[in-house]
Amino acid sequence: VRLKELPYVDLITSIEHRRRHLQDQPTAAGKAPAQDSIFQAELMAYQGQHQEAAKAFGRAGQVDLAVQMFTDLRMWEDAKMFAANSSTIDPKDLVRSQAEWHHEVGDWSKAAEMYMSSGDAAKAVALLGDKQPAGWAQQMTSIARDLSTAAGNRATLMSCAKFLAGGGEDNAAKAVYIKLDAVDELMALYIRRHRWPEAVALADDPANRGKFDASMFIPYAEWLAAEHRFDEALAAFRRAGRPDESRRMLEHLTFNAVLERRFKDAAYYYTLMAAECLKREGSGSGLSRNEEAKGEEAKHSSSIESLPPSEVQAILPRYRDYLHRADIYAAYQHIENLYQPFTLAQPEANFHVSLFLINTLSSRASQVIPHGISMLRILSTLASNAKHLGAFKLARYAYDRLLMLALPEKDREKIELDMLTIQAKPVRDHQDLLPACYLSGITNPLLNPFLTGDVSINCGHPFIRSFISFEVLPLVEFVPAPGITDEDAIELIRTPPKEGVRRRIPGSTHGPSDGDLEDDPTFEAIKGGGGEGSDHFSDAVNKALAIFEGHSQEAKTSSRPTEKSQQGEYVPVVCSADALLSLRRDEIFCLRPRVEMALHQHPRKEELLSQYDTSNASGAVTYSAGGRGVQYCRFFRNMLPDTCPIALSQPAGRFFLEEEFELSLLKDGCCPLSRVPVDKLPDYGHV
């Protein structure tokens, strides 16, 4: 008391009270020595003799009190040493107590380490993520690396990745997501960081199919659009399962391209819109044999929607209208280029493209001239180039049409002067300029007087033009006979023809004034199956011409209304197996089905294509401009293979003079219409 050590006095007083209390107990006699050791240990502990006090607690059988003493003194190593000899104390509880103490004093890293040692990884991760002490990212990365991927640890590992990603440690977070195979979360990380190449590579990995939400491509598409990478944005919207957004962007791009007079771009976008139509129609019940696949994968399929038959029927005309507009805008770009400061266009090319546009836009099928197309410029180009090349009759027509238009004041005087000078020219067109029909073998007038479009007036066969110079190509379209599939037809064409097969020029024995072909011995041979040396392809051509002109009995009476053809409607050349065998493969071009090209990058391409009926059964070959359908190949024969090499762009579905096409590939590095790079362009030669 004199030394004022009041805590010591309190301890002695406490010991005296406890001893008196024990003496009052009937069983106190046996416990007295042990209690004395405990009291002695408490006194030594107060005096700072902690090790001796702990040993005294041990002799008294109270190791727990020794551990408690060291815990209160934060002497953790001594506490752990004595706890190892205790059967009632869990070492993890001691470590947890140590962690809580470090937590209380603000030593977050040490506390997390202790929590981890005690097996409470979730608390360690939460503490590091909330407080983020120095070196926390490395410590959390180590925790994530040491934890197993057991189900009980998944939530903790996901928290690790979340904190690491939030702290900018993307690579460490990526490693955790990969460890967990958390593709969806890893994809979300890539999207937040705009690491688009890695996101696309992750999505393209077949092993990750179905492990992430395809809607991740929506922000990717929006970013691409903001970067003016519109073509890639369209593909991203399709992969996101948002064909509506893809179509909306296509419509905006097309409209803006027309307003800005970028007609080549407008043609390209119309081609893409046509492909979008086929993608939507890909699962339509009107043309399919099987139901569309169910489930989550079908839910996220890009641009494929189930449509009722009525809407399917409305889509195909829209598809053809988009292609029609694409052709017009692609051609009109040549006219627009003439009004630029510099142009390398030749009079022949200007003449052909303006003639194509006049015949196409003047047809009954073209009810509305597309926006941005100037008939004034087309007619002016046609008139001047026709006059230059000697097509004076056509030039007079063009100038007469110009008189019906409101002419600009700056051009009026020149046009009126040209109209006066053309009066001194003969009213005829140069014979070399008249287009020849390679099906009927007869020349056509430059302008179609029947307003049926850019087609032959003798047989209705469309003029197939090179989409660079717009010259008429010597191509004749034909279809395999019913029962012959496209693949069978290709195999027959690739089979070398028999020796001694006689080849005639199609149409050489038939003309518009030949009369009724019922008395023609050639036609009789066709009906009888032909002879050993007959040219089966020419026989098929003559039969088509006979049906077109109404001379064939099949045209007069048909048991199938769908195959009935009125006089003046285009009739396809239908080739039997013998006719296909008689063809040389270096003369034949096969345009792959349009729906196949539209779905060429779709992950379910084979499944969707298998829904189409491509058996070419009876009734598939119809005498109509629509042909057999977008699921079939189209076959063409080059009638002048030695003098007119031709190239076919499968993605664009258009033909070119081979020299022009290859020059364009060298110049631009891609197809002039579809813009497919050279290294991804399919073979553009014959079958």
Sequence-ordered SSE layout with sheet pairings:
Layout: H1 6-23, H2 28-46, H3 50-59, H4 63-72, H5 76-83, H6 91-105, H7 108-117, H8 121-131, H9 136-146, H10 154-166, H11 170-180, H12 183-193, H13 196-204, H14 217-226, H15 230-239, H16 243-259, H17 263-281, H18 296-299, H19 309-337, H20 347-361, H21 375-389, H22 392-403, H23 409-422, E1 475-480, H24 486-494, H25 521-528, H26 536-549, H27 553-556, E2 573-575, H28 577-581, E3 588-591, H29 594-598, H30 605-609, E4 634-638, E5 646-649, E6 654-657, H31 658-668
Parallel strand pairs: 1-2
Antiparallel strand pairs: 1-4, 3-4, 5-6
Please tally the β strands and state the result: 6
Radius of gyration, in Å, reads: 43 Å
Helix percent reads: 40-55%
Mean pLDDT: 79
Q: Pairing-aware structural class of the strands and helices? A: mainly alpha
The poorly predicted ranges are 282-306, 500-534, 556-567
Shape: elongated
Helix count from the secondary structure assignment: 31
Give a short account of the largest sheet: 4 strands, mixed
From the N-terminal CA to the C-terminal CA, the straight-line distance is 116 Å
Quaternary? single chain
Give a concise summary.
The chain contains 31 helices and six strands. The protein is mostly helical and 687 residues long. The longest helix is centred in the middle third of the chain and has 29 residues, at 309-337.
Protein model, in words:
- The protein has 687 residues and is mostly helical.
- The chain folds into four domains: 30-193; 228-319, no CATH class; 347-433, no CATH class; 475-644, no CATH class.
- The protein is built from 31 helices and six strands.
- The protein has helices at residues 6-23, 28-46, 50-59, 63-72, 76-83, 91-105, 108-117, 121-131, 136-146, 154-166, 170-180, 183-193, 196-204, 217-226, 230-239, 243-259, 263-281, 296-299, 309-337, 347-361, 375-389, 392-403, 409-422, 486-494, 521-528, 536-549, 553-556, 577-581, 594-598, 605-609, 658-668; strands spanning 475-480, 573-575, 588-591, 634-638, 646-649, 654-657.
- The strands form two sheets. It has a four-stranded mixed β-sheet with strand order 2-1-4-3. Strands 5-6 form a two-stranded antiparallel ribbon.
- Helix 19 runs antiparallel to helix 20 (347-361).
- The protein is elongated and about 140 Å long.
- Residues 432-476 form the IFT122 zinc ribbon domain.
